[in-house]
Every structure is written in structure tokens, then in C-alpha cells.
Input
Amino acid sequence: MDVSGPGPTDEELAARAAAGDESAFEAIVTRYQSRVFRLAWRLTANEGDAADVLQETFLQVYRKLGTFRGDSRFGTWLYRIATNAALMHRRARSRRPAEPLESFLPRFDEDGLHAATPAELQAAAGVEHRLDRRRLAEKAIAAIGRLPDTYREAFVLRDLEEMTTAQVADVLGLEPPAVRQRVHRARMMLRGYLGALSGVKA
Amino acid sequence: MTGVTCASGVALLMDYLEGVLPPQTASELESHVAACERCRAYVESYRATPRILRDATTADLPPELEESLLAFLRAKRH
Output
């Protein structure tokens, strides 16, 4: 989240940019553009959409700089803008509803025991040996795009962007238990999906 | 023996990995998983899932997008 290296902190740059320093604003863009693009790509599952979200995010950052109060870190504030921009973009696209991933949740018998065998249950962990990188990349981004919006946002921020649960809660305006619940559901669905990609339905 | 089943244990996994379970519950979950081959396999693949998907979804900002972003933002500000 804090990508400040040597030089001014994010908050110092934000204050200068809000006071009209164009070079400070462009320094913020340079510092965050790669991260925002990757986040947007993971949230929209589409490169063209990610490019639109990238532009929209920094335009909003520019327009809202005067409202940044420092209640949270600048990076958290910027991620909140980017996440909302991606969500608005997906809604505006009104795509056909994606086939849900519910069928990949784990299955249990009447005694609460795993219905699948150990080898089937482990299959997801070996998916990288079963598919080439390019195909796995295509399948991975498509599967993330099939998660319900609320699960996808929490999962992408927590597990792909590697924010802490507390930071994700701050970005999404949730309590930490709600973040954990959403990330957990997403992990279970995606784990089952990866297992199926490995050739095992478990 | 504890009251933890595969199903009830799976429901606790995220909280366990984040360290927010009560110690007694965490210890019961650990005992179940240690004795259950299926849960050990499940936990391994559950823990591997975020890293696999993180590695599979890296994306570099295309250089032409970097240029068009700055041009777009400059046009909007002037």
C-alpha cells in the first residue's frame, strides 16, 4: 500500500498537488499507475475496461484531492476510488450475468465429512503443473470475473493486492469479519475451480 | 475426539489463518486437521489458491497506456 520510497511521502505529494502543483500530481500518477492498472485489470477482467478505469481513477483523484483529509492513508483513499470506478464500469457494461461459481464450493456427506478423496481435494494446488502459463492466466482472470462483485472486490484486494484485512475493510467500508467472510467464500469457490481445471471435480 | 467435522472446520479456515479464532477452537481445529487426510489436502489447496491466482494475474501497464494516461490527464486539466 505505501509505495513511498526515498523522496516525498504520498501525503506530502497530495498536499502539494491539492495546492496546484502539477508536477506533484504527475508524481502521484507515476507512483501509482502500474498498481492501479493491475488492480483495474483484476477487477474488470478486461484490458480495455482496465484502461478506462485507470483514466477515470486518476481524473477523480485529481478532482477530489482537495477532499483528502488524511483520515486513512493516501494509498487506501486512492484504492477506494479505483475500486469504485471499476465497480461502476462493470455495472455500466451490464454484461450478461456470469455463470456463478457456487458449484465449486466443497461438498460434504451427511456426517460433515469431505465427499472428495484427498487426491481430488489436493488437485487445485497442482494446477500450475497441469496447464501452461498462458492458459492458466486466461482461466484465472475469467474465473475471478465470475465471482459475485462483493466477493471479487474483497478477494482481489486481500489476496491479489495483498492488503491486510483491516486495510480492505477500510477501502470497502466494511467490518473485518465481513471481509473475512467474503474472502473465504471466494477462496473456496476459486480453489474448487482450480481443482476442476486440473481435471478433478471436487 | 473433538466436535470439529470437515464441514465445520472448513468454515473456520479463514479465521484460523488470520489468527482470530479463540485458542480453544483453534486447537480443536488443528487436532481435527492433523488426524484427517482429506482436510490436510483441502487446507493445502486452500492456502495455495491465492498465490496461484496472484501469479497468474500479474499485468504490466502497457507503455502506450502510460503515455495516453498523461496526455488524457493534461488535456482534462487545461
